[in-house]
User: Fold these one by one.
Assistant:
Number 1:
Amino acid sequence: MNVQRLRLTFGRDERLKYVSHLDMMRLWQRAFNRAGVPLAYSQGFSPHPRISTAAPLAVGVTSNCELLDVFLEPAGDPSAFLDRIEPEMPPGLRLTAAAEVALDSPSLPSRLRFAEYETAFAAGLPAAEIASRLEALLSAPSLPRERLRDGRVKHYDLRPLIADLRPRDGSARHATIWMRLQANPSGSGRPEEVLAAMGIEAPPLRITRVGLILDQ
Amino acid sequence: MWESIDAILPTVSKPGRYAGGEWNSIAKDWKDADLKVALAYPDVYEVGMSNLGLAILYDLLNRRENVLAERVFAPWPDMETAMRGSDLPLFSLETKNPLSAFDIVGFSLGYELTYTNVLNMLDLAGIPIRSAERTQEHPLIIAGGSCVLNAEPMSEFVDLFVLGDGEDALDRLANLYIRERGQAAPGRPDKDDFLRRAVEIPGIYVPRYYDVEYHEDGTVAQILPWPNCPSQIVRSIIAALRPSVTRPIVPFLETIHDRAAVEIQRGCTRACRFCQAGTIYRPLRERPKEEVLAAIRDILKNTGYQEVSLVSLSSSDYPDIAGLVGDLLSCYGSQRLNVSLPSLRIDSFSVELAEEIQRGKKTSFTFAPEAGTQRLRDVINKGVTEEDLLRSVETAFQLGWQGIKLYFMIGLPTETDEDVEGIVHLVRKVRDVGKRHAGSRASVRVSVATFVPKAHTPFQWTAQIDETLLARRQEILRRGLRGGGVSLSWHDPKVSRLEATLARGDRRLGSVIEAAWRLGCKFDAWSEHFDFDKWRLAFAECGLDPAFYAHRQRPLDEVTPWSHLSSGLSPAYLRSEYRRAAAATGTGDCRVDECNNCGLQKSIPACGERHRSQLATIRGRKVERAAT
């Protein structure tokens, strides 16, 4: 067994932001195939390549900090891997690093704690007002919200999903908020929900994932 | 444009349908193009991106340096609402340019129930739907695909039709356009000048240059071409398949056929009398095995797909299909390549072939006996016997399949209640074979469609079964196949009725299609959107009766609405096949048996040669006999 586990860091821009998580996974597999990368397959009745990301990236969201683990067989040089895969990346996808990780280290999703976002929206509010609304959210004991899921209304508390919120410098028309939201199996915060809880009705102009925080 | 698109995409389902940017898609610079073509597919992205014809034409046009081709599909109703709400015109996926900015918009018409989507797409693009209302400043609207062999129902909306194989005809059309553009001062060539010259290209039909006169009873009296227009427009037929597309677009979204596709042959020699594809794609053109293998090697490298479909109308008939499959498995078996073989014949050889390429679970095996009795299978010239079917089913169960899916049609010409009871008997026998091998796990699914007579087939004159009779025959099946490991499903007969009406309609149906669209009909091919009552209303508004088109037995000497559009097959051949059908006489496979004199021996060199050598043999025999 000469299996190798590589951890890739990648980002996607506006051009690819409407690709769903499932489609991204297919995209990766096809890019690896084109590059002739030796994917390792799982055992079992219907073997599949072992590719997994830290957390699905929602449709419409761009990112510069995604993490993906891929298992290869046989092992190779990670930098050669980058050279091979680079020409097979569709426009809008950018691979920034590939590093070997221990085969037995815990999976990415199990280590993920928080995701950080920058969310831009059409302001129409003075900076002081935005700051005070953020303050209000952070000091609220709970933020009951409801959202539609599979056609049914789901009630939940947004507050424990918010770790931190800060205003970023914006222009007169656009404001940007930095958010650190919980992202683990028990629940993940959504940036657009935070905006809605702030009383901002208009849909966000841009959501970018800027950080994934893993446990140590 | 992108900003307004970007503003609505987060609010619609599957926004990836409209974003473009897929691997191998081509976005050229508009400044450098002498001809800009929008390839429009009147159904949703996932359906259109599974169409091999679209991939072929996209490749063919974009290979030319001074030509660009981009794609556009029918927006799903939620997207349409959002677009209309923000005054966003229909745009191309590659460069997000509005359709109205292209020189030519070419629609692919492969199914009659997409016609209202064509109108809707033009309207969404801000282009008047009727040819007569469009001016020099609008793009030329053209169409091709299997439906245009009877273009008449769409002739009020489309400026020019490409009949038959698109490759040569579209190349010539592009040449003509660029030449004409060169002469005209800035801007597009004069539309009428262009169309007048286009009619000289084989396979090009410009409906405005043909006047149709009707008898009082509504049948066509005559079709009169304008001066210098051919009285018969013969389908364009390429002599040999062009090299396979090896850089097809790889969609992000999962499409209907989400895999690589290589056309291994075009056309079919089996002469099934109900099958339009069997007549309008003749003659058979095969891609040599070495070429298929090379194409697959390149396409896998260029796409990253792990599944390839060997496309043809009858895979088992490809010469050395076993060798091809064997080579593929030995080359790519270790790389987990899946091979799919559509349209397998009903015989043990085909089942064993399927076994070879099968990976993973053997769920169900599909056979299409089409009819329930030998007599009726002889009528439709489906050369398969009960013994063939039962032996194939036996093989499938022996090799580990647990389910069988069977396709039948009801309402085939000369069908009687006994023929439908024949389906019941046959299905029961299949089920018994299954029980013997797989016990209670054996499942048999029966899918029944209503027969739709199509233009350019030997059954083009026959009436479609009417509702009362259909109901009675359905009841025979329902009663006969209740329970016992058999499940029964129907194609919606109303859909088949509309299909039959449009497939053999005349020009007057243009008003009906427009009326239906104005009443809100679109995505008629989707059961959740199909609304037959609206169509009924549209017919009534126009004073036309669907039954006149669908349920009327037409005399063999009636002038059909498509009589000026030729598949290359002779009317005499179709009439002879019609009579042989009535007598339940079989017609051979012209690849292994005799030439059937279908008419192509006059225009296709290979067929002509075959025909002449056959005549010589017959003459030789006569001489021998006379000498002895």
Number 2:
Amino acid sequence: MPATDYNLGRSILGIRRDQVHTMEGSQGVSSLELELETFQRQVTDRFHDLGSVGPEELLSLSWIRKLLDCFLCCQDEFRAILFNHKNLITKSPVDRLIAEFFERSVKALDVCNAVRDGIEQIRQWQKILDIVLCALDTHRSLGEGQFRRAKKALIDLAIAMLDEKDSNTTVAQRNRSFGRNNVGRDHRSLGHFRSLSWSVSRSWSAARQLQAIGNNLTAPRGSEVVATSGLAVPIYTMGSILLFVMWALVAAIPCQDRGLQTHFSIPRQFSWSQPILSLHERIGEESRKRERKNACGLLKEIHQIEKCARHMNELADSVQFPLTEDKEGEVRQRVEELALVCEALKGGLDPLERQVREVFHRIVRSRTEGLDSLGRANHHE
Amino acid sequence: METTAPEKSSSPSPRNQNFVSSAPDSADTHIENEDVKHPDVEDEIKEAPVEHEESSSAAAGSDAGEKASDLDSVSDEIDQFLSLLSSMEDKSTPPDIPDYVEVFCKLVEMQIFTYDSGDSSARFGCNPDDDSRFLESVNRISKLTNVITKFCSANSYYAVSLNQTSSVMQCAMNFLENEFHALLEDSNSKRLKKEDSNVRALKTKQPSFSSNSYSNSTSNRESSNGLPESESDHPEEDSSPHSPEVVARLNKIATAMISGGFEAECCHVYSMIRHHAVREAMSKMGFEKMSLDDVHKMNWDHLEQEINRWCSIVKETSKLVFTTERNLIEAVFSGYPSIYQTLFKDLARSVIFKFLNFAEGVSMTKQALEKLFKVLDMFEVLRDLNLKINKASYSDDEWENELKSEICTPASRLGELAYCIFCDLEGSIKSDTGKTPVPFGGHHPMIRWIINYLRVLSDYKDSMEELFEQHQKSKERHDETAESDDHENDSKPPHAINNNNKNHRNNQNQKNKKMSGFRAQWMVIMHCVDQVAETKSKLYKDPSLRYIFLMNNGRYMLQKIKESSEMQELVGDAWMKKWSSDLRTFHKNYQRETWGRLLQCLNQEGLQVNGKVYKPALKERFKNFNAMFDEIHKTQGQWVVTDSQLQSELRVSISAVIIPAYRSFLARFSQYLDPGRQTEKYIKLQPEDIENAVEELFEGSGHLSMARKRT
């Protein structure tokens, strides 16, 4: 299957080959051509690799990190292509395409920031879960008080997670009543300290930002490919990767006004279209699943938090004291589940955040470099 | 001690048993029924073992005192029980649980209930004795709970007791958490009120430095910064919104919660509220959440205001975080260094990250001359922030490095932007092709603009020098890697070339050491200004006016430079000397051009024919002199010399040249003219008239003063 895709990929570049050969000297062009083909193939390989995971791994923290790794690699190779062909990128119409790409990439920076806030949000949830773990330390005997403590933390968690789902002002109202009904007069809800989602203004929308990134992102026509010595292809490829990666991040991580309606129409002759479109399809399916429809993020670990919290709540509601041996076993099992999730979050969130920062910085850097070479060329002219 | 405890526990009274069975399951209902149960408990205490009767009756005078002494005596029993249990090696055969465990739980619940009763005089914090007794009880109950859990598997009574102690403990911790929350929050609102007034002081609009209109902007560092040095304005001590009593209470609660195993809740509440408080303070100062897209689209006027605001907010907030908040954290969690360090680092990290986005955004905007000082302001603010982190270091490299590298990225981008803007100045000056001379030889707006620009820039001298150094370093690094890349591809041994290159570069470095990169570029600009003056002076046809223009502008530059020691230092003595001597040359040339010609009229040569004064020539001389002087007076009266010192220097030198010459000419030749009509016709000016007329030169209002005279 992949092999045929590569052939298709080669064929778009192939159309160009003869035409370009007649236009310019062959030496430089053939090395460029080789680079472009390699780039297409590597992109395809990487996304095939990302798509090769089972449903359990898809959208997990480790998968998201792989996705970002993939983005960083593609970005590096793309940058190398631009760097190696400085003389070409300053010529029309490549300069226009590059400038458009940079505009697109600046818009992705805001998504990175929003996602970073989302990661911080999850980190807060993890801290609350730590309280549950601390309360139900199964190395000791558990009494009613410990279960109450856990229950209280679970309510805080529910408020914190609910808060994120719809970030309207009505939430504060809801929190208060939610708190009152469930926890009695003493409970002060911490939910109204929407501590995070703070880098962007209230009106900012991830959905709209994705739309802006994807604006005018269309596959280059044959004539355009020829006119750009083939460079239109990697520019389009990188633009699509950018859009897809940002879309997947928004799908996975809580952020303001998530919307996953982004449509991908990538012509089949691009060898990487199939793996990307299939990932898009799979993630879309995940978001349509009943239990995930209202989720604040499709990240596997968020789902696990929700599941664990639900189980734990049911358990806390059903316990009688003293605990029967059965119950005690169940508690132990649930706590272990929860501990696993916490462990995954603790180990995964920090590196993920660093990676998101890295994506941010790389985008900025490559834009600065690119604009520099465009600007310098303009000066000389 | 250890012998008495089991003795008592071995004889539980029937009433106590009753009490246990009637006790409701949940702590909530305990509380609600407390007022009903209260008398029971009182009874209970009074029927407690004999040795306590004395203390009970002694305190019977007041209800509170009674309760306190009840609690004291039960507490003693609990302590004995605790020490008994913890000394037991064999966990399989614990002693029976004594009744006073239950009594103790009730008393603690009762205290919570009293605190919560709504009676303001009974609240937590009103009676320090009660409070510390309560906190001791909380401590006791958490110890009790911990010990009891160890015996639960051996004895089912312990499991029942665990439910009770753990519930009361949860209840107490919950109460403390709420109390902690409320204390922290109250302080918030107090602080916000205070900050409100601080902020108003910050929001003064600064004059802007715009390049497109070479306007009369004389912005200086203070106004461009927009901030009074706030460090000195608000002494650090009084910035804390928490009274020492509140801090002490917070500390006690935190200690109780942490030692009771509720560290997670305590830290969670603390960081939620303090993060929120700092953010609230920031938004009160006008901090706006802005996406990079927003920054990208903003026009300069708007962005400039945002930058001013950003700078002041970062300064204020970092002071808030690194001083006030840090002091608070350390005071509240004193005794728990690892906790307070973590809390502080989290707070600082999260706040600082919020600042950086805007800096990233600005660093990505297009370069333009008018942005230089604002970009430098931001650069310096970030640099100061870095210093604060240095100072705050708890020797945690990871935290420090992460923050620093996060700050460094936008800071170095801003620095590079500033560098490029300044290097661009040369090109913009050279590209100016204006062909209109400034009327009457006044200050050229472009020269004035450049000098004022440089004047402001000189205040950023240290930063600029740092930036040039950084740029040089990164360029060298870049060159070196490029070089080594080249050599990798090179088949010949590279050493020879390499060494040569290095030596060459070292030599150059040594040469450059005398003059920093920034100063070198600065001198390039000074040279440009000189060129501008030169070029613009050529637009005047009248050579006298050309010199007046050169003097005017030269003097303006010199004065501006002398006003600032930084500028003087940058320009250097040699340049100043050269400039002063240029100015003297211009002065001389002007004298020659204007007054030299006039003096020709007073030349004695050619007036005498065969030793006798030739009257028509004399008349002609007087006529010419009068006409010429009148003309000079009229034109040069309109010319502008704004610098009063230069003005008077010019007038003095003119008078010194012309008046003695005229006086002696008059003395010598006036006798040859017939007194009366002829004298009147030809000697229109007395030396005093000339002196007065000279005083009217360079006023820029020649027309007006003449007109005034005639009427």
Number 3:
Amino acid sequence: MTQLETISVKHLSKQFKNQTALRDISFSIKSGEIFGFLGPSGAGKTTTIKILTGQMHPSDGFASVLGVPTEKINEHIYEQIGIVTHNSGIYDKLSVYKNLEIFTKLLNVKKSKIDEILKQVGLFKDRKKIAGKLSQGMRQRLVLARAVLHNPKVLFLDEPTSGLDPSTQIEIHRLIKSLRDNGTAIFLTTHNMEEADKLCDRLALLNDGKIVETGTPREIRLNHNKKKRYKILLKDDSEFTLSQSEETTQKINWWMTNNELVTIHSCEPTLETVFLEVTGRELI
Amino acid sequence: MNLSIRKISAILQLKLQSIITNVSIMVAPLLAIGFVLIMKISMPKAVMTGAFLLSFGVLFNSIMGGIMMGSYPLAEEKEKNTLRVLMTSSVNGAEFIIGSIIPSILMIILVNIILVPIAGVAMSKINWPIYLIYTTLSGFISIMIGYIVGIYSKNQMQAGNISMPILLIFTMTPMFQMINKTIANIASFAYSGTIINFINNMLTKSYSANFKDIAVLTIWTVLSILIFIYAYTKHGLDSE
Ligand SMILES: Nc1ncnc2c1ncn2[C@@H]1O[C@H](COP(=O)(O)OP(=O)(O)OP(=O)(O)O)[C@@H](O)[C@H]1O
Ligand SMILES: [Mg+2]
């Protein structure tokens, strides 16, 4: 599949009355790609999504979605994108099924798609339930189901799995990946580094409104792995971590020849440690 | 702005479903019917004339009902963050308003018709074309006022607080009219005053459409639409 640039962001800034939420950020996302925005609370993730979906105007810079500047996003574009945010509402008094049925009409989607999607998000047996009675996780899956009902070309997910149990997270990850494989461009925010690592094709680390690092999760980790470290367990039960050096090499050599060594691991830094290193700040 | 019939009809179906499930929308028409019934049964006939009962019912239904049907559902959609979802699912403001207004208007018309026999007024005594046009127009004006309130409210509670005084002023118009001639004169320029005069005259003497009544209703209609459009273009249905 040829990859088209679906989202383009150039020197975007957002200034609120007494606060700068985004400072000169630039990136682009292609079709069939999961791009993750990883950053702590208040970094500017939701603000970015609001600007990209035409719900808020930037103070400076330029962004476009499917070739249309975000200030000019219209019905035609909304028919081709899906949005999930923390406060995406559902109709509490209608059933799960009815909640989706409205949107099949609005978005001109076949009704048969409803059951198909409900099965994918694991809500099929709850389709007759009143949406107001769903658990948090079920509610979130309903919102996701609605956002992907029309096979959007671009999908915006604002912390799609926060607060969900691990098995639901895995289900949702599977759905996101299958959408990606069908060519959807996915822009996802998270402050869960494990999710960013497992799910995203490319990442931007966002801190205090600035992008401090971009690349594939692997690239980012390895970039910060210039100085290798080894975690060592010896027969006498002592355990320690050593940085790469002449001395370390000699020590390891000695333990190995004397059969003292039980296990040895090279420590790749996690995204979390990278984040800490780049920003001096924890992720959560 | 494009209008899609498909999207309008989807909103219309959504609103029909929510009319049935939303107590705050049904309360005014039900109260209108209920109060008229209770007053007719429990009070002496000399006081509770057909004209009094019908104008009371119509005021409740068209004015109070209209304002509530406009303000509450809009505020509820904002409070529950569903309006934002509709707007980012390719529905535009005009489609939303048209799709929402149709079921409300139909509801108001239906109840205004039912109120005639319930108030004990003979069907033949009603000048139906004028009755339907006047009461429907006043319902429409009220819904517009309701939407304006909805635009300025973040949630249903706020919508209730803002609409309460407005709603009282218009539904109490006939009582003000009883105080003295000057106040009655002023009240006759309120659209609710026009409705009351019309129903009273039609049932006790005779009524023919006159310039003043038509002008009052027309001006209120145009004014409510203009203020709505102003509020809408300034704030949008759902502003941050
Ligand atoms: N409407 C607004 N008015 C004023 N300031 C705002 C507004 N929206 C966001 N902010 C500020 O902008 C900054 C970025 O907020 P944003 O919601 O984008 O963070 P986030 O990365 O999504 O955080 P979280 O992980 O907590 O959701 C915050 O400091 C926030 O207080
Ligand atoms: Mg956020």
